[in-house]
Every structure is written in C-alpha cells, then in structure tokens.
Amino acid sequence: MEFLTLFFLLVIGLILILIEILFIPGTTIFGIFGILAIFYSDYLSFQYFGSEFAIVYSIANSILVLFIVIYSLKTNTWK
How many angstroms separate the CA atoms of 64 and 23, rounded? Predict the structure, then answer.
C-alpha cells in the first residue's frame, strides 16, 4: 500500500508539472502543487521505508523529473 501511495503521488506530481509547462504556462498553481506532491512522496518514503531507500527514491525522482522536463521542452511537444 505504501508503494502505491508513493507511486500515485509521483505520477500526480509529474502530470501537474507537465500541465504547467505544456498547457497552462505562467499560472504556477499546477507547478507548485506538482512540486508539493513530489516532495510529499519523498517525505513519505522517509517515513515508510527509512533513509536508505528514501535517498535512492529521491535521487531517482529528481532524475526522472529532470529528464521529463528536458524531453518535453526539447521536442516542442506543445506545437
């Protein structure tokens, strides 16, 4: 159950950040909620699984978000 919570928070955060970047730029509400969802999933990973897993999870989240943002901006997906 804890893995599902982390997964859904991460997916919701990524979707909200992509909505902010691609569809509604400049509003910042979706971006803020997306970042908060991802940070909360990192926080919960520390609470549920301890620091070893949570550090790896946080680094993986950061890399995933970075790649998704770079890919969505480079490929001009909004055109």
Answer: 20
